[in-house]
Known about the structure:
Helix content: 10-25%
Amino acid sequence: MLDRPRGQPDLSACGMVTAKAWVLKKHFEGFPKTSDFDLKKIELPKLKDGEVLLESVFLSVDPYMRPYSQRDMKEGDIMIGTQVARIIESKNPAFVVGAFVVANSGWRTHFVSNGKELHSLPSSWPESLPKSLALGTVGMPGLTAYFGLLEVCKMKPGETVLVNAAAGAVGSVVGQLAKIGGCKVVGSAGSDEKVAYLKKIGFDEAFNYKTVTSLKEALHKASPDGYDCFFDNVGGEFASVAIHQMKKYGRIAVCGAISQYNDSVPQKGPYVQFPMIFKELQMEGFIVHRWNNRREEGQKALLKWVLEGKIKYHEQITEGFENMPAAFIGMLKGENLGKAIVKV
């Protein structure tokens, strides 16, 4: 018997589809391990009216999955996450077979949806642009950068913006959006290769936080006058040092705390009150879903800037659904440049 083409669903004699899914076998203790995951097969039911059958093409691995798995998941649940998926069967007139959508259906190869949580790719999406960008620069990470800078940092032309984890999916877009907005941009990353990439995409200053002798001195050297906006993806020691380098009335957008996600023992302060008071700072945590009603606006703007070459992107693509855990662990260790994606 001939093997079925790669990526095609496994159709059994009764016409049902067998999906593969990664489940959380054991809650993470410290850094996730491949043994914390289990690969399961799931028989999908036949479609009812109003439903569609989808096949994942690209899947996303993101830092948020680490703390959210602890907060929201039980052992045995399918790992949370987003994918670009192709519709392969439809009993819903709003979705045609062959169309691509963004879904939030976790780490699985196939799934059934009633269509309510599916987001079609913008109609202006050109064939030449990788559809995986809907999970990165023109997706949730890009929107996080867009709304975090505009609505939380409220950046203005001529200001100085600091961003850490700057070569990651969110940080790299933050820096480029700040440049489009007429700001000076300083970025911190964890390797010389990443620092070179930041310079290439237009950052004014960039440094490797792992090799500088003093983080305080590196931040001061990059912007002796301090920082108006700080887009924080890292938390921990970096944030504790950077807050003292803020200008008066500076704004801090707290987006993530990747330096703390894998700690078995929680880190203890320093504390923020003195710099917050003396510099009269604003510090606000945010989750991008707050602006779900403006998703289209953000996507349209990001897509336009990508097509104009004003936002450059880099994707770290891992081949094979079986490599989801390895891609996730590698991303948490900072092995990716730009957005970490798994291609089924």
